[in-house]
Every structure is written in structure tokens, then in C-alpha cells.
Fold:
Amino acid sequence: TVLNSNFTIHPSLRQQCPNLTSFQRSSTCPGLLGIFPDNNTAIQHFNLPWSCPPKCLSIRSSSASSSLSTSSSSSSSSPASFSPSYPSYAASDISATMSSASSSLFLGCSLTHAGKCSTAENVFCLFSFQNFRNGQGLSLIVSPTTAANLLGIGALDDDPAPWASHVRKQRETPYQITDVKGKGKGVVATRSIKQGEILMVDVPALLISEEFLRETEREGKGHLRRRMVKRGLEQLPESTRRKVLELQKGSGSYEIDAILGINLKGLGGDRSETDSALALLEEQELQEHGEGMMGLFAEVARINHSCRPNARLRFSKNRLAMEVVSYRPIFPGEEILISYTPLNLPPSDRHNFLQQTHHFTCHCPLCTALSDDPSANTPAAESHSRRQHLNELWTTMLHAKSEGFYQDAINILKDWLDFAEVEGLLPLMGEYHGVMAESYLMLAERGSPGGKEVDRDLALRGALREARMAVDAWVRLGSVDGGKTEDARAFLEKVFKLKERRKGR
Ligand SMILES: C[S@@+](CC[C@H](N)C(=O)[O-])C[C@H]1O[C@@H](n2cnc3c(N)ncnc32)[C@H](O)[C@@H]1O
Structure:
């Protein structure tokens, strides 16, 4: 990517919007997108890494005929056969048009007369990026704004170094993809894997806006979705396309939907964390950088489900990479398993969820060992109720913190840690110490509700200790995305300065 260093597209193009007018394709396309001031003089050009013109699908409030290419006519809508897990969504009618070389580019952002920012919310474009990550390739079906945001945060860059070191590590992968009895293919460890180790780093072949999936489904426009995705696959390098087409297929009459239906992953993690609230926060943070997205990761898609997983997914938005991190030590020959469902669901709900979304009946050891009776005294039942309790504690802690009861939040977090240690949840320690540090800092700065006496120096020392532990945990866990470690370091620095200032008073 050649981005002019004098001008960076800010992560939130929306916030930048008042200074921009429109986001247009320059006449020198292919490969160039410009930001133009009012008088239409190009002030900046960016060499874009993706194919140009992007293929776009616009959603308008009143639809006329729909077609996916400038020359072809529309095909009749097909019966919905996509994953039933997308919630229904109030939306306007959809009409689809394909951009042609001569048509103007869809506005990512334009200024209305009132000076307010209006964004082309209902336009989804296909951007294909053949050279992504050493030629693995990536097709994005997102709004132009999200594409610009991804570009702005450097997610599409192949440098700098952290990614390269993980690619090197990837060459000595500690797993193989092989046949697993009763489950098709699966991922099996080929050497010992330590607790908290990143055992796989996978990049998406497809990243698709959740809204695009929902709306094409809701509006009975599955044929448009399939054509857009099919084209996205066609624009990928041959080896990546083959890997995707060879993935296991779910039910449905259409190959594309059958592949997407069981293999797409949300980017908020796999929800296997005991504290699904954390995953939710991560997802919200992700959405601040644009619409929600789902990704198709050809290797991660081979990982089977267990209600008692030994690994979890962690998405790095800055590197667009999905990491698989082990919850506990894994032995050679053991299958790597993640959870497709939130772990705090009762078994019957988990089973329904798996049936609906992935069309299978789970026969993992927890399901076979566990009855719905919580009084069943097996290790599996105990683990289940411990995880349920962890989840409840985390939610209560978040409420306490948001309502200003920082001391209570700290006490709840201490309880949480006792249970989490028994469950071997080391990969969550960075998050844990981070929230603990924040709670101590707030206690030091804001005190307790009702004017209860607080030892602010002690609280500040607590914040400093926990902030240091958060940095340590993130450094130890490592990631292709140094963002978490950097955030933790910045927080530590802030606490350190506050403490020094207080000492100086
Ligand atoms: C995302 S794919 C996982 C990889 C897949 N086994 C393959 O061969 O590519 C999900 C599918 O794997 C199978 N599967 C995953 N976990 C399973 C489990 N615990 N029990 C039975 N089948 C499972 C189901 O057919 C499910 O729809």
C-alpha cells in the first residue's frame, strides 16, 4: 500500500468527514482512490492495493430492478437457505447495481448542504486484494467506509515486522489438518503446546459485512449475496480459492451458502471465554472501526467444536489475523478444539444452537458426561457450573464498575480470579489485570459512592501493581497485534505519572 505520509485516513472516517467532501474514484483508475475537496480538485491520491473498480451493491429506499452487472439482467430471488442465526433487521429495499469502469465511485462519505456528514450506509463493495499476506489474497465485502478505515489503521499493510515473525513461526506449525473420526476433518497437535501459546495464526480469505449478510437474507436477495461472494472467491489466488471450496459444507442448495453457513466466524472471538461480556466489548471496539464483519479463515474453519475446549479464538483487528490460543497444555496427538457456543449456556440450549447454526449433534465428552441436572457430581458438571459462575461474576463486576462501586468491582474480580485459576484460564490474564488496574485507578480518582473513606494512595499503588501485571501478561501472551500490549503500557505510564504527581504534592 502506498499511503502518502502527509495524509492518513483516520480510523474513523466519519469523524474526519467534515473536512472531506467526497470519496471518489479518480479518472486514472485502476488502483487509485482520491479524496476531493468541494471544487473537485484532487488533493490526495492513494494507490490502493485492491482491484478496481470495486464491485458494489447499493441498497436504496425504493428499489427498481436489480442486477449484479451492468450488462446482465436480474435473476429471480431464490428461497432463503442461509444460516438462520442472523437476527432480522429493519432495512430498506435492496436494489443491486454493479459499478462499471465508467460509473462514478460510490461515495464513502459526502458532505450534505447542512455541513453534516452523510455516509453511504447501504452500499457494499467487493474489494479484492491479490497480494495480501504474501499472496494469500483477501476479498472484502464491506462498505467503502469500512474499507477505507481498514486501510487507515494499516490492517491491509504487509509490514511491519510483527506479522513477518508470526509467518516464520507459522512455518513450524504445531498441528496438522487430518481426518478425525465422526467429525470429518479436524486439527490435531503434532507436538506439545504450552498453556497460553498462540498455536495458529490465520488470515481471512473473505471478510464480509454482517449487515450485508443479514440484509440480503432478510430481503430474499440470496442470489445477489452468492454472486458477490462467488466473484470475491474468483478474484482470490487459485490456492486460497481451492482451500475455501474444499471446506466442509453445511446444508443448503447453494454451494456458497453451504460453505459460509458453517465456516464463517464472528470477529469478536469464539465466545468460548467464560466472560462473554469481554468478547462483547471487543466486538463493540471493533465496530467503532466500521460495521461488524464475519470472516472466513480456511484453517481456523477446520477446528471442530467442544463444549469444553482446549483453545480459543482471538482476533487482531490491526493485523486482520485470527489467533488460536491454548487454554491449557495440549499433548501431541490431541485434537485442538474451540467452542462454537457461549460456554455458559445450559446443555440443551447449546445443543439447539449447534443444530441450528452448524447442523450437528455434539458428542463431546462434556455433553456425554453431563446431565442437565446441575447436582450431578462429575468433574465435567463442576467445571460447567464453575464457568457459569465465572460468567455471572464478570457481569456483576461490570455493573458494579459502571455504577461507581469500584471497591466492590475489585472484590468481585478477586473472586473471579480464584475460579479462573482452577479452570486454567491463563489466556484471559491480560484482560483481568487491565480491568483490575482501571478499577483501582477509578477508586483512587473518584472514591466511593456515599463519601465512604478511601485510602487513595493505597488504591493508586494497587492500580500501578495491576497495570504492571497487565503489561507482563500481554507481553507473555504475545500477539500478532501489539495493540493490547501498547494499550497496557500506555495505561501503566498514565498511572505512573499520576502517582508521581501525587507524591510531589
Ligand atoms: C467449521 S466445521 C469444522 C471442520 C470440519 N470438521 C471439516 O471437516 O472441515 C464444522 C462442522 O464440523 C463438524 N463438527 C465439529 N465439531 C463437532 C462435534 N463436536 N461433533 C460432531 N461434529 C462436529 C460438524 O459437521 C460441523 O458442522
